Structures are given as C-alpha cells and as structure tokens.
Amino acid sequence: MISFFRKIRKNLLKEGKTVRYFKYALGEIILVVIGILIALQINNWNEEKKNVRKGYEILVDVRENAESNIIQFQQDIEVNRKVINSIDIVLNNITITKVYNKSLDKHLRFVTWWASSRWKSTGYESLVSQGVEIVKSRVLRESIIDLYETTYPLIIENTRLEEGNWHAVLPYWLELIYREPSGFNTADAHKATPFDYQKLVQSNMFKSILSFKRSQRLVDIKLRNRAIEKNNNLIVLIDKELGIK
Prior knowledge:
Largest sheet: 2 strands, antiparallel
Shape: elongated
Structural class: mainly alpha
Number of domains: 1
Number of helices: 7
C-alpha cells in the first residue's frame, strides 16, 4: 500500500503537477492522522473495557469481604456480650452475694477477654493498588474509603486502648487472682481462682477495674455494630453499581 502511494507521488512530480502533488501529499497525511486517531480510540476503548472488568472484579471482592466481615463482627459482639455477662456476675457476687463458689472461676477468667481486631481487606487493597478512581460512583468510592480509613481504625484504636489498660492493671490483678496457663484460644476451658476471695470483696480498685472493662466492652460493641451497618450499606451500593437485584 505504501509503495502504491509512493508511485502516485512520483508520477505526479514527473508530470509536473506540483499543486496536485502537494494536495495529494496533504490528503495522505490526513489519512495517516485519521488512522492513528482511530487506532488510539480503539486502544482507549480496550483499556476502558479492561478497567470496567477490573473494577467489577474489585467490587465483587469488596462485597465478599463485607459479607465476611459482618459475620466476624457479629461473632466479636457475641464475645463482648459474654464478657459483659461474666463481669456482671462477678460484680454481683463480690458486691451483693459475697459468697465464693467454684462457678465464679470461669467468669473471673473470661472478664479479661476481648475480641481481636481482624477483618478481610483484600478488595480494598486491590482498589488502592489499582487506583480508587476505577470505581466510577463517587458515593460508593467514598463509602469504601470511609469504612477502611475511618470506621475500622476506630476499632483498632479501641482495642489498643484495651490492651494498654490491661497491661497497666495486670500486676495488681495477678496479685489477687491465679490464672491457669493456657494458649489463649479456649477461654471457656480455663479458669482464674482468687487467692483470697475476701480481698476481692473489699477491693474498690478491683470493682473499678471490672466496671471500666465493662464500659470498654460496650464501646467495642457500639463500634462493631456501626461497622456492620456500614458494611450492609456498602453491599447495597455495590449491588446497585453492579446491577445485582
């Protein structure tokens, strides 16, 4: 094709048709430019299709993470409620009943438990890696970022405070209560026994520690419930974006 056009240009020059030559050359340049523009447009279309497909895959992953995290947070909340129940039983015993019995041991062990901060984030990590703009919906994009950059960090911070406070009171706690050794993965199977039950009854600090831990568990429940709500809202937005009914 190129040799064909070159032959036409040579013939025009030989025949002295300079004006027609330049017009022809200009037309040829225009055709080349149009061809390049068409090729670029096709390439852009292909890239757009790839981005749409990648965005779809990421949103599916984010949605699966959201469903999994909802289940995880529900389990965490159940743990927190069990801890609160144990705290209430111990507080009732040392402030009202004031009579020690063996059943108290499992509750004394469980009051020191707290839910860990863990959730799935593979979808969000892929989104950040790919570029958040791949999600076209601004509302959906902001909802995902808010969940992972604001809501989840609050849970992490509350857990960090819980751990820090526990380390601060642990020496005092261990002076009052003997903890059975364990791998910290089967709290219900282990117990904690008071060295002197009457010291628990008389200790205002011990009561304050339990009350403070109870308030922390309530805060944690509130934070995880908020995360569940936002994950549910996120699933609705993703379904709308993906056209899932």
